[in-house]
Design goal:
Layout: E1 3-5, E2 12-13, H1 17-20, H2 24-33, H3 40-51, H4 59-68, H5 71-82, H6 101-105, H7 114-117, E3 134-135, H8 151-169, H9 178-219, H10 222-311, H11 314-318, E4 321-324, E5 327-330, E6 333-335, H12 345-365, E7 373-376, E8 383-386, E9 393-395, H13 404-434, E10 444-445, E11 448-449, E12 452-453, H14 461-483
Antiparallel strand pairs: 1-2, 1-3, 4-5, 5-6, 7-8, 8-9, 10-11, 11-12
Helix pairs in contact: 2-8, 5-9, 12-14, 13-14
């Protein structure tokens, strides 16, 4: 199977039916009409050039004329200009091969054999690409291996040989698509028009030279002609000198332009660096501003929290001391008993646990150490331990049972309350030593506070309840002094 691609734009081609069904006679007619080599046209041009009579003209004009008739220049110029035209031409399935009239009329005496026309130009795939752009199988077999080829393979091989023959006998690689062929025709037509205009110019120049020569031969003599020639030569030298000066000036201007371009590039880079640095600084400034705003907001919130915490007395919230009728209360727990309003011992024991914890907390905050006693707050089963002497432990909780063991326990309960009252007296004396302006309404003397004994065993319940209320009042005064910063 063969795949054809255009040798200019490398697009795949779909051959026209007339090329696929090319008969042997048509192939022979095309082969005999081609020149023997790509240089035949150049040789023909050279022969014409030698046969053309020489006219007085400048060397540059002659060079232009030769360049215009050079087939290589025609080919490259046509391809270069043809790629720039708008690609609005027939589809690839309308491809065809252009044969020049000069090629058709210059039929050689003997046709070139088909075997010598198959020139393989392999640039990408050496084993399966011909110069004409047709792609064949990876392992092609010579024709001798196919004594009886099928009609389709015979036509395809004929087409391939035709493209190879056209590529080897002309200056253009085949096959070409319709668009590239149209571009090539347009370029060649434009070159032909330019060449015709140039030819007409040369003919007019030749006529003018002939007329001028005739006038000079009639009106001037040889001396005048030589004088004029010398004058023209001097003018030519002056013009050449002026041209050299202009060229040097142009070179200087080019140097200045390059220097200005370098300076402009440096300024552009400097400007880019400046704007980059400015953008970085703006981003950093924006970040600093946002950070400052966030810090100020955090500071305001923290300061508000700080002021709120300063106004908050956590000890008042943790140990709320008040009263409920004749009872003193701590955190809502009643401390005491009266005949008309009996209070459960579990509530009294819990209130004593909170009271001992408050005394313990105040002592720790004031960094105060009790003499001879150590407080052990344990809720409803708190105790007070002596640190000297017998080192006895007294339970600061009671019970309403009346059996003999409970009576002994209540006696230890009285010892614990007396020890608590002694610790409270030590703390009151310490506070008075720190602040002489503080006053306590009830004085503590042994087991009494404000003329009311804190013992329960041999006292009336009303007297005991009043003594407990005086204890809570003294603790509240000490707590207020401690939390208000009176201790420094």
């Amino acid at each position: 199977m063969m795949n054809y691609v255009c040798q200019q734009c490398k697009e795949p081609l779909l051959l026209d039916a007339s090329l696929v069904d090319l008969s042997p006679s048509q192939y022979d007619t095309i082969a005999t009409s081609l020149p023997s080599s790509p240089s035949a046209h150049a040789k023909h041009i050279s022969d014409i050039e030698q046969a053309t009579p020489q006219h007085p003209s400048t060397s540059s004009s002659k060079a232009v004329w030769k360049q215009a008739n050079n087939p290589e220049n025609i080919r490259h110029t046509a391809l270069a200009h043809g790629k720039q035209l708008q690609r609005s031409y027939p589809a690839p399935n309308e491809s065809f091969v252009i044969l020049k009239d000069s090629v058709i009329h210059n039929i050689p005496s003997q046709p070139l054999s088909v075997g010598s026309a198959e020139v393989i130009a392999n640039t990408r795939h050496p084993n399966n690409t011909t110069k004409g752009g047709s792609t064949i199988a990876s392992h092609p077999q010579p024709e001798s291996d196919y004594p009886n080829p099928t009609p389709i393979s015979h036509h395809l091989r004929s087409t391939m040989r035709l493209f190879n023959l056209l590529s080897s006998r002309t200056d253009i690689d085949h096959p070409l698509c319709a668009e590239c062929t149209q571009i090539l025709l347009s370029s060649l037509q434009r070159k032909l028009d330019e060449t015709k205009k140039e030819r007409d110019g040369y003919i007019a120049f030749d006529k003018e030279v002939r007329k001028e020569k005739e006038r000079e031969s009639q009106d001037t003599n040889r001396d005048e002609v030589e004088h004029k020639i010398e004058q023209l030569k001097s003018e030519e030298r002056a013009i050449l000198d002026q041209l050299k000066f202009v060229e040097r000036e142009r070179e200087q201007l080019d140097e200045e332009l390059r220097a200005l371009e370098l300076e402009e590039r440096a300024l552009d880079e400097e400007e880019a660096d400046f704007w980059r640095l400015r953008n970085d600084q703006q981003v950093a400034s924006a970040n600093q501003t946002s950070l400052l705003v966030s810090l100020r907001a955090a500071y305001a919130a923290d300061y508000a929290t700080y002021e709120k915490l300063e106004r908050t007395n956590v000890y008042n919230d943790a140990f709320c001391i008040g009263h409920d009728g004749v009872f003193g209360t701590i955190n809502g727990l009643r401390l005491g008993r009266v005949p008309g309003a009996p209070v459960e011992w579990s509530e009294i024991n819990a209130a004593w646990g909170q009271t001992l914890l408050l005394l313990y907390t105040i002592a720790r905050k004031l960094d105060f150490t009790f003499e001879s006693y150590r407080l052990i707050p344990m809720g409803s089963f708190s105790r007070i331990e002596r640190t000297v002497g017998d080192k006895a432990t007294y339970e600061l909780y009671g019970s309403g049972d009346l059996h003999f063991g409970r009576l002994l326990h209540n006696r230890r309960f009285d010892f614990a309350m007396v020890a608590f009252l002694e610790c409270l007296k030590q703390l009151m004396d310490y506070v008075k030593s720190q602040d002489s302006n503080i006053e306590f309404p009830h004085q503590i003397i042994k087991d009494k506070i404000g003329e009311a004994s804190i013992k329960l065993q041999f006292s009336q319940e009303e007297c005991w309840t009043r003594a407990l209320r005086h204890v809570l009042l003294a603790l509240k005064i000490i707590l207020k002094w401690t939390t208000n910063g009176g201790n420094g």
